[in-house]
Design a protein that fits this description.
Number of helices: 14
Bound molecules: zinc ion
Distance between the termini: 71 Å
Order of helices and strands: HHHHHHEHHEEEHEEHEHEHEEEEHEHE
CATH class of the largest domain: Alpha Beta
Helix content: 25-40%
Oligomer: single chain
CATH architecture of the largest domain: 2-Layer Sandwich
Number of domains: 4
Number of strands: 14
């Protein structure tokens, strides 16, 4: 069966438009549109049958029958002209009849493109992608049609529609389509006779480092433990366990300026609520969701955030970032080195000389062996219970009072410093308490630097 026979078989069954006819043979021939593919097929058949008609041979009658089919059922104007020229009568086609497959949707592509325009007002983007959710009726109709006529070289309705709307919209907006990382995805929900549009704006990622100068602030928002965020008497109906967080102090200015729907805070690890984050700060990436503005004045936002949160937090070195950076941030947290300053209280009083001896012992112990740290009880509700091996790179110490001393500890990322000192009832070994021979407690802790 030739491709011409296939086309004739199609029109003996149903009327379909040029676009849809071309789509049924999309995998054949390149560098053209489905519309031109459809038109070319009909033109070639018309020419072939016109020639057969003129040749006055056996297939003469059959040729005029097929020309009539194209003129009436395919509503093909050149076939109509040939018939008129040769003086063959044919019935006027039914112009009200719509394409069986697309309901004449492909003739109205401009309407779909224009429809998106109003949704895009006030949104900043440099490129876009079209997506489509088709009604099941459209898909089923097309699948059945392809099965009945054994059409194996067709392209999907969806691809065809996305491309045509994309081309049209690209012209209207003077912006290119982007397939890998579009700023915006315009999703059409298409039914016969109507359509809806939803926009998906790609998240904007901003990398920075934060300092925390005050204790008692968690890194991210915590739901109230009693009401789980719903609001209750205990949390004064805020739904929050803590009044604020590093995240809540930083993100509103960004969300506001980017006209985003919300944000997500991705920190490179986290310090405890009562631990300060000093030095050059802790890296984090702020993800802004559904941002309508993508070009932000980062310097201005930084100044604003820092000015309104003096003595609490500070952000620095803001730059645009990516989703990949967030992944790396999480992965690399374990491979970082962190420097801490700890104020340590001991049960027993010791002299400066004893302190010096114990400090020397501490240094030797951690030079020789790694720390075995089982997940502390206090975090066991959110982290898997297992033993982690950590390297302590450096311990420096200063005698302050017989029962108070200050330590500088340089440790592998993910080390629990409070437990390194206390021993956590034998869950962390060897601990400072083990080396001292009596129990120690970390009273205050600061992160001085993250490498
Ligand atoms: Zn059609
Ligand atoms: Zn509550």
């Amino acid at each position: 069966m030739t491709i011409f026979d296939k086309v004739i078989e199609i029109y003996q069954d149903k009327y379909i438009c040029f676009h849809c006819l071309g789509r049924m043979f999309s995998l054949l021939g390149t560098d053209t549109t489905n519309h031109d593919r459809g038109n070319s097929l009909l033109l070639a058949i018309t020419m072939d049958k016109h020639r057969a008609y003129l040749s006055q041979q056996d297939n003469h009658d059959n040729a005029s029958q097929i020309l009539k089919l194209l003129a009436e059922k395919a509503k093909y104007t050149p076939a109509q002209s040939v018939l008129e020229k040769e003086g063959i009568e044919y019935s006027k086609p039914d112009f009200a009849e719509k394409c069986y497959l697309c309901n004449d949707l492909f003739n109205d592509i401009g309407v779909y493109a224009k429809g998106a325009e109003k949704y895009l007002k006030g949104i900043e983007f440099t490129n876009f992608l079209i997506g489509t959710a088709l009604d099941a009726q459209i898909i089923n109709k097309e699948d059945n049609f392809k099965a009945i006529h054994n059409l194996l070289e067709a392209e999907s309705f969806k691809n065809h529609f996305n491309r045509e709307v994309g081309k049209e919209l690209s012209l209207i907006l003077s912006k290119p389509a982007e397939f890998r990382m579009p700023d915006i995805t315009i999703i059409y929900s298409v039914k016969f006779g109507s359509f809806d549009i939803t926009l998906l704006l790609r998240s904007l990622f901003i990398y920075s480092r934060y300092n925390k100068f005050a204790r008692g602030i968690p890194q991210t928002h915590w739901d109230c433990r009693l009401c789980r965020g719903k609001g209750c008497e205990s949390c004064k109906f805020t739904g929050k366990q803590y009044k604020t967080s590093v995240e809540e102090l930083i993100s509103p200015e960004f969300v506001n300026k980017a006209k985003a729907d919300g944000s997500k805070f991705h920190g490179a690890g986290r310090e405890d609520i009562d631990v300060r984050m000093l030095g050059t700060g802790r890296p984090f990436v702020l993800e802004l969701k559904n941002p309508k503005i993508r070009t932000l004045n980062l310097k201005k936002i930084q100044n604003k955030v820092n000015k309104s949160n003096k003595k609490k937090i500070k952000v620095s070195d803001l730059i645009y970032s990516s989703k990949e950076r967030v992944k790396n941030l999480k992965l690399s947290a374990e491979n970082t080195k962190k420097v801490y300053e700890a104020i340590v209280i001991s049960k027993e009083k010791i002299s400066k000389d004893t302190f010096d001896v114990l400090l020397k012992k501490l240094k030797t112990v951690y030079e020789k062996q790694k720390l075995q740290q089982r997940t502390p009880i206090r975090v066991s509700h959110r982290r898997a219970d297992k033993i982690r091996e950590k390297k302590i790179f450096r311990v420096e110490g200063k005698f302050i009072k017989p029962n108070v001393s200050e330590f500088i500890v340089e440790a592998q990322g993910g080390t629990y410093i409070k437990e390194l000192i206390s021993g956590d009832n034998g869950r962390t070994t060897p601990s400072f308490s083990d080396v001292y021979g009596f129990s120690l407690e970390c009273k205050k802790l600061d992160v001085l630097e993250i490498y």
